[in-house]
Design goal:
Oligomer: single chain
CATH superfamily of the largest domain: HUPs
CATH class of the largest domain: Alpha Beta
Number of strands: 9
Distance between the termini: 44 Å
Number of domains: 2
Strand content: 15-25%
Shape: globular
CATH architecture of the largest domain: 3-Layer(aba) Sandwich
Length: about 280
């Protein structure tokens, strides 16, 4: 397994792989890997000759007062896990390598798809995501890039960026990986104390009950949204940022559930903000 810190080195290496006809799969991460990340790696291995994992805690997608400084990091542990998964290369640049002092170029997707949900709660977040992913795509030259469904809005935004700007690659979404009790795996789960960890189970429970209501015939989007909020609100430590239901393709508002929809949640337990979601097709 190769470990690259410099852009020019990994870009040249990836060019060599392409010249030899090898298909490259990229798994962008911010490190502190869990089973959800490893599932992305395994999916990439199924489809690609070369698997590259980036580990970079991207400062430009964090807002003022967010957890950039304390975001969990453990490169040694991450690299051991990736070596076990037979990853071909890790790209682990510094912030200074990715953003030179005079950096001033940004990639931004506008419209409803970035104005809602995390886009409303975290101004500038998706500009940071799309810019860093553009850089990673240009550096690592992937044919396929793998993202988790847990970050559903992020995947939608990147799919639109790739379509709009004609990137020669495909975004592959991989289903959410959950703990045995249903909590979606996240690097931020380590922030939860025992009681918050227990109460956070309400997120998956709310999504399950809302999906059951839709399967049982409820078609009023407003009622489903209310159901999500009521179930989550029953948890004393839950502070709802959003609990919404939108069109699954572009986050358009819906009144009636007559197509594939995305139910999306962001809820704080203590200082920890967790997200979760579920796609439902009727």
């Amino acid at each position: 397994m190769r470990i690259f810190k410099e852009i020019q080195s990994i870009q040249n290496w990836c060019k060599e792989q392409k010249v030899q006809g090898r298909k490259i799969g990229l798994v962008p991460t911010m490190g502190y890997l869990h089973e959800g990340h490893l599932e992305l790696v395994r999916e990439a291995r199924k489809h690609c000759d070369i698997v590259v994992v980036s580990i970079f805690v991207n400062p430009t997608q964090f807002g003022v007062g967010e957890d950039f400084e304390v975001y969990p990091r453990d490169f040694q542990r991450d690299s051991s896990l990736l070596e076990r998964e037979q990853v071909d290369a890790i790209f682990a640049p510094t912030a200074g390598e990715m953003y030179l002092p005079d950096f001033s170029s940004w990639v931004e997707v506008t419209g409803e798809i970035t104005a809602k949900l995390c886009g409303a709660s975290r101004p500038g977040h998706f500009r940071g995501v799309t810019t860093v992913c553009t850089k990673l795509f240009n550096i690592c030259l992937p044919d396929l890039a793998f993202f988790g469904q847990k970050d559903a809005q992020q995947a939608m935004v990147l799919e639109k960026m790739v379509r709009d700007l004609n990137f020669p690659l495909q975004i592959i979404r991989v289903p959410i990986v959950r703990e045995a009790d249903g909590l979606a795996m996240s690097s931020r789960n380590v922030y939860l104390d025992a009681e918050d960890r227990k109460q956070a189970l309400v997120l998956n429970q709310a999504l399950e009950q809302a999906e059951k209501a839709i399967r049982d015939g409820e078609r009023d989007a407003g009622r489903i949204k209310q159901l999500l909020q009521e179930i989550i609100g029953s948890s004393p430590r839950a502070e709802i940022d959003y609990a919404e239901i939108y069109d699954a393709y572009d986050l358009a508002d819906i009144q009636q559930i007559d197509r594939k929809v995305l139910m999306a949640l962001a809820v704080k337990f203590g200082k920890t903000r967790l997200i979760d979601n579920r796609l439902v097709e009727v």
